[in-house]
Amino acid sequence: MERILEQIPRFFSGPNMTLLLEAAGLTLAMTLTGCLIGFGLAFVLVYLRQTPGMWALPLRWICITYVEVFRRIPFIVVIYLVLFFIQAVTPDASLFTIAVIAICLYAVAYTADIIRGGIESVPITQVEAAQSMNLSRLQTNIRIILPQAWPVIVPPAIAFAVSFIKDTALVSQVGVFELTFRGKELNNQGYSGLLVFGTIALCYFLLSFPLSMLGQYLEKRLATPRGERRSRKIRHS
Amino acid sequence: MNYGFQFGVVWDNIPELLEGAWLTLQLGCFAFAGGSLIGLLFATIKTYGVWPLRFLVDCYVIFITNTPALIQIYFLYFGLPEVGIRWSNEACLLIGLTMNAGAYLTLILRAGFLSVRVTEIEASQTLGMSLIQQVRYIILPHIAKSIYPALANFFIVVLVMGTSVGALIGVDELTGQAINLSTVNYRWLEYFTVVAGMYVVLTFIASIGLALLGRWAFRVKARIF
Amino acid sequence: MQHLEVSDVRAKYGTLEVLKGISFSIKKGEIASLVGPSGSGKSTVLRALMGLTPITGGTVMIGNERMNYSSAKEVRAARDRMAIVFQQYNLFQNMTVMQNLTLAPLKIKKWGKTDVITEAHRLLGLVGLSDRANAFPDQLSGGQQQRVALARALALKPQILLLDEVTSALDPELVNEVLDAVRKLANEGMTMIIVSHEMAFVREVADKVIFMDEGHIIEVGKPADIFDNSQTNRARDFFSKILRH
Ligand SMILES: Nc1ncnc2c1ncn2[C@@H]1O[C@H](COP(=O)(O)OP(=O)(O)O)[C@@H](O)[C@H]1O
Ligand SMILES: [Mg+2]
Question: In this structure, is residue A62 part of a structural domain?
Fold first, then answer.
């Protein structure tokens, strides 16, 4: 206990705090980049998965398998696989890139199910109306389905990304200078583990909690029907 | 890419990997069971408790669910020895995971409790049923049915994401075994590919088991896929 | 010359055969009305024509063109010539009335923007909704939504318009505003197939009534002949029940 008290002034020094701030930035940056790219690719995956016709059966199968498999493999195993695979292909890929790819692969699998759920929440009659006007499958998706599926997709997608901030702690294992890595480093420098990991936990909390609150706020807001949302705007102006 | 895959070495070490998988399964089951007890207690407090207790439970849940399980476990593993508490790495992992799962299970069970309130009233109006009968035949099946899919899903999360964190503090569960073995002969890609496959098989068996259990015990149609 | 000719068309949902060989034809400017008990396959006829339910046999001719719905191209061609209005309106919820009307003419038919917008305003005037161009569907009543749906179908300038029980989802006091709009189209000489339970309306506008039951066409004839003087027991049964009130 005395040791902790004695360390506190030294631990909360300027350089250490800058270090942690940068690390928190990196944690956030790689989560955001990975999840955004993953989210985009997930749309492609879902679109491919819904390709009609017999010839597309293998394609649909691959898409389903991808989602199923990645949800059943620990993130740390994915990180190692990506690390060693990428290093075998291009030895000079940065660790940040590797982390982002791993996050991305994982995010695709999880957000694909969220997107599919959103798309299925749009009544089939909307699709039939679009089809009978000769809108193509892509046009129907972009112009009719996604705008309506959006409120169903966005809140859980944000919740996933926010929750994934915590899981990115595992990439410390391959040496990305994010929060957890810096925490272990400080611990190795002799700072108390209680102090260091308590602080690191607090850092994650400060990233995660406000964002999850934001997600919940958005969820409530998006749940308002379109007409009401719009008329409210008109009344204000 | 000119990486020559050699799965032969991995094949020789299948027994070690299976041991790891067995430990993974045990850890997952114990953490989930312990977490369920915590969750049941805390969800009850949240529903029926006095406000200071409810507030404490809220703090616990919010703090745990907004920080990484890895950091919680590091806290136990690297921090607690400083105040004289020394647990083995398995114990740190199991206690950390249980506490972590407890917070999430509080949320799941609490949602189940909330879902029952309406039926509870309806049920109590049903004539000729004692309270115990109501609980046994109406309330419990209702809770089970409404939260079983979430519980089954969360078990897989604990089994996969939860236990694998142990590899980072040297627990020889499945991922830990893969790290140990591949450090010896540098066949990282092979080991991790095989281990990934073993996780898929393990969780698939678990999913099927859970779906059957749900159908048999609670008449829930849980999805395997 | 026949404008639309349907010969021996069959359709299935899974293993259930819902259309068991349907044949009828319509001349240009003619209004045909499909009537029959619920579940007899009326909607399925319209859906099959629009390529929404695949047909398993038979042929469809529009003008001189044969539509077999066997390739995406033929389905597109059929949808290019016909437009459908659904019982549940099915307006695009994420778009304003104006966007609903102009989407396909602009993006699919690729007609000029000014023409499309002028035409959309004209059609909204026709259905009596000139002032609601910028409203969203969920801000409109059922009758208003159905009239928008009618205008949306007309904006495609279809050769044949298909109406599937367009008043069945509406409150009684809203039925007439929609029927009035359809009546105007009838007077303009629009070729239409109308599925309806509004027998008085059918008697008034239809040139031809097609009575269906259990996936077959039982009787075809002029409204007066069919309603008052039907030749088959099944038709007589149906009309005696439905015309009494
Ligand atoms: N999507 C569907 N899947 C399976 N069966 C259907 C479907 N739609 C309609 N049917 C069946 O097809 C038959 C005809 O339906 P429909 O054409 O809607 O009749 P109508 O419009 O004359 O009431 C009914 O027996 C109905 O149950
Ligand atoms: Mg119908």
Answer: yes
Range of the domain at A49: 2-230
Ligand nearest to the CA of C44: 1
- What is the complex's ipTM, to 2 decimals? 0.91
> In the predicted model, is pLDDT for residue B224 greater than 80?
no
* Interface with B, mutate which of A76, A188, A203 (most B CBs under 10 A): A76
Total domains in chain B come to 1
> Residues C27, C192: contact at Cβ < 8 Å?
no
State whether B79 and A198 contact (CB < 8 Å). Answer: yes
Structural domain spans, chain C: 2-87+151-242
- Looking at ligand 1, which residue's alpha carbon is closest to its atom 27? C39
Q: Can you give the pLDDT at residue B118? A: 60
pLDDT at A233 over 60: no
Measuring CA to CA, how many Å separate A179 from each of A93, A192, B28, B77? 21, 16, 26, 17
Q: Which residues of chain A lie closer than 8 angstroms to C83, CB-CB?
A: 132-133
C50 Cα–ligand 2 center, Å? 14
In this complex, the residue of A125, A132, A225 whose CB is nearest that of residue C88 is: A125
In the CATH hierarchy, which top-level class contains the domain C2-87+151-242? alpha beta
In a domain, A235, yes or no: no
Q: By C-alpha distance, which of A212, A132, A117 is closest to A164?
A: A212
A73 contact residues in B (CB cutoff 8 A):
160, 196, 199-200
The answer to whether residue B198 is domain-embedded is yes
Sorting pLDDT into bands at 50, 70 and 90, what band is B6? confident
Q: Which of A197, A206, A207 to mutate to test the interface with B (most CBs of B within 10 A)?
A: A197
Token pair 């077999």 in the structure block, residue: C68
Asked if A94 and A176 touch (Cβ cutoff 8 Å), the reply is: no
Query: Which residues lie near ion ligand 2 (Cβ < 5 Å)?
Result: C 43
> What pLDDT is recorded for position A229?
45
Section B7-24 average pLDDT: 85
Contacting chains of B (3 CB pairs or more, <8 Å) are A
Contact indicator for B107, B172 with CB cutoff of 8 Å: no
Residue B118 lies in a domain: yes
Could you tell me if residue A157 is inside a domain?
yes
Q: Report yes or no on chains A and B touching (3+ CB pairs under 8 A).
A: yes
Q: What is the arithmetic mean of pLDDT over B51-73? A: 93
CATH of residue B120: 1.10.3720.10
pLDDT at position C26 is 93
CATH of the domain at A162: 1.10.3720.10
**pLDDT tens-digit readout, A25-84:** 989 999 999 999 999 999 999 999 988 888 889 999 999 999 999 989 999 999 999 988
Domain hosting B118: range is 8-218
Domain count, chain A: 1
Percentage of residues of chain C with pLDDT beyond 70: 98
Structure tokens at C199: 């027998």
Going by the DSSP 8-state scheme, the letter that residue B78 receives in this structure is I
Q: pLDDT (tens digit, 9 = 90+) per residue, C210-229?
A: 999 999 999 999 988 888 88
Taking 50 as the pLDDT cut, the residues of chain C under it are none
Report pLDDT digits (tens) over C62-111: 988 888 888 888 899 999 999 999 999 899 999 999 999 999 999 999 99
A60 touches chain B (CB under 8 A): no
Residue whose C-alpha is closest to residue B42's, from B32, B28, B53:
B53
Q: Is position A237 within any domain?
A: no
Residue C177 tokens, joined: 């505003």
**DSSP helix, strand, coil percent of chain A (3-state; round to 5):** 85, 0, 15
User: Chain centroid to CA C17: how far?
Assistant: 22
Residue from C16, C53, C56, C210 whose mutation best tests the ligand 1 pocket (most atoms within 8 A of CB): C16
pTM of the model: 0.86
Q: What are the φ/ψ torsions at residue B66 (nearest 5 degrees)?
A: -110, 10
pLDDT at A194: 85
